[in-house]
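stage 2 :: seqdesign
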């Protein structure tokens, strides 16, 4: 179409925490782009790969290179939490350097695959005139502007399986198993995996919990059982960003990353310790950590990655700078469109407590139709 810039070379990078579905997305992008004789250049380690000191290396991606990437977890390009607008090594704002290097690599378009932070950088670069687009990825599913972020489905499956597996030891030994799940300030992963895995309670960041109430819910299940066949264990899934009412988030270390985020963690151990101290129930804690982002992508993440990658190439061909591919509806049979990057990173998408969460029982609402 007249007036459109011809796209001969597209760059692609993956930033932030890795997630299953990144490699399938790169594969979709490469297949679509190279079928139209457009080159794709893989940039290593997120935004770090576009800083001067890393400019020597990148990876031209052909269909043969990425052929088997549909089944690979993580990101074959590597990732980092680099924020070029807030360089921690003291060089300050390195946004202009990234813009210069996009040109130096001869990129007609750049596809950034990431979450709130990586796409926040993409949005700022687009405002500065860069030909940038985004693909949404995060196991937290907390990005605005889309109903699906790559990695979420695989992580829900992984976490749900571990929650389910934790029921047999807890049941055999009659203890309370606390399972701490990632998700940062969003409860999507904890909630859906917890419910699917059979957790008795799920504590989410969106609704600070009352510790005494957690105890009374445990007593209601575990005390006064009439025979050995009634439940003698309970699994509590707690999101890493959950907190007691009037309390604060638990963090594993002081300080923040280049995007100002603290590393969350530790609430699971605190909760199990509190239960052992204040009640007559035994308790154990398991923090699932990074393996919950690991492993091969699920069929949903393979299909969504493929479609998102193709959509990003189409957006590049149409010169739709400053946009993110977005899914509406249930993945993978969803509608894919483009939304402004600025809209996607404007505010976080949190769990809809009013619709889904029983704030009295700390579990899913037993009401769906609202007739
Ligand atoms: O955003 C994805 C995520 O896994 C969060 O759920 C978690 O809080 C964070 O990344 C962990 O960060 P890192 O990988 O830097 O330890």
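stage 2 :: out
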């Amino acid at each position: 179409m007249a007036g459109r810039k011809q796209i001969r070379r597209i760059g692609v990078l993956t930033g932030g925490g890795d997630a299953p579905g990144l490699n399938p997305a790169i594969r979709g992008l490469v297949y679509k782009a190279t079928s139209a004789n457009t080159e794709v250049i893989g940039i290593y380690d997120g935004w770090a790969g576009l800083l001067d000191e890393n400019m020597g290396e990148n990876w031209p991606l052909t269909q043969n290179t990425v052929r088997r990437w549909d089944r690979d977890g993580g990101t074959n390009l590597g990732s980092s939490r680099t924020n070029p607008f807030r360089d921690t090594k003291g060089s300050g704002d390195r946004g202009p350097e990234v813009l210069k290097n996009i040109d130096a690599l001869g990129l007609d378009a750049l596809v950034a695959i990431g979450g709130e932070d990586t796409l926040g950088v993409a949005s700022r670069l687009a405002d500065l005139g860069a030909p940038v687009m985004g693909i949404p990825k995060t196991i937290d599913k907390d990005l605005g502007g889309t109903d699906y972020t790559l990695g979420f489905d695989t992580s829900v499956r992984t976490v749900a399986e571990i929650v389910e597996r934790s029921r047999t030891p807890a049941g055999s030994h009659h203890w309370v198993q606390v399972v701490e799940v990632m998700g940062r300030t969003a409860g999507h992963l904890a909630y859906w995996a917890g419910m699917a895995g059979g957790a008795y309670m799920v504590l989410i960041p969106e609704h600070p919990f009352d510790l005494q109430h957690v105890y009374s819910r445990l007593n209601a299940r575990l005390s006064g059982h009439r025979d050995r066949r009634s439940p003698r264990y309970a699994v509590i899934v707690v999101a890493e960003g959950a907190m007691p009412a009037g309390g604060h988030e638990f963090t594993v270390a002081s300080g923040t990353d280049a995007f100002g985020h603290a590393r969350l963690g530790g609430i699971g151990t605190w909760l199990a310790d509190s239960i052992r101290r204040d009640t007559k129930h035994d308790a154990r804690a398991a923090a699932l950590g990074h393996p919950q982002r690991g492993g091969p992508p699920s069929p949903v993440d393979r299909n969504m990655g493929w479609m998102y990658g193709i959509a990003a190439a189409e957006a590049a061909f149409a010169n739709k700078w400053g946009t993110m591919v977005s899914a509406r509806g249930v993945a993978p049979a969803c509608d894919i469109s483009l939304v402004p990057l600025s809209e996607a990173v404007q505010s976080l998408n949190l769990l809809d407590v009013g619709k889904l969460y029983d704030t009295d029982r700390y579990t899913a609402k037993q009401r769906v139709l609202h007739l």
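stage 3 :: structure notes
- Residues 152-173 form the longest helix (22 residues).
- The longest strand covers residues 9-14.
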